[in-house]
């Protein structure tokens, strides 16, 4: 099976590599006969862009990876679910510069998803309910896996068009040996912490109609 080709509009995109937290336990320790294998993941790339319909699109791709050594949640009915981070899932954090609040998105290969709103670091807004659901697509083959999450504008923070959002991209990879690997663009603490605001190191400008007069 071949993975689908991304169907992207002609808009600016950002692609960046994620890396595992330094505390990640090796998949296979070194022996006299072979070197250590640090992870079943060869490369984890993330791409994001603002779509003309106001959505934000995030793509995560495992490349040159030992997919057989990773636990991939089985496909199920698309719906919201909690604790997706206990298994393989991909995550996006976004906030407005200068404001303490932010939003967390969890995307599972199963098709399940979660959106959480926070007033400040780990201070969750319990009364928050998402106004719209993301659309997820997932595919895998022998050495690669790909997930696309299209987040509609109604699920994004309420900001004017053209606002730059601070973004953190991350992933949890569950291995067949039971270990969890924590991947992010930047790790800023001794233990994995995707909520650390200084790890939101990317910027995504929400869609705004081009000014043809310029």
TrEMBL record:
<protein>
    <recommendedName>
        <fullName>DOMON-like domain-containing protein</fullName>
    </recommendedName>
</protein>
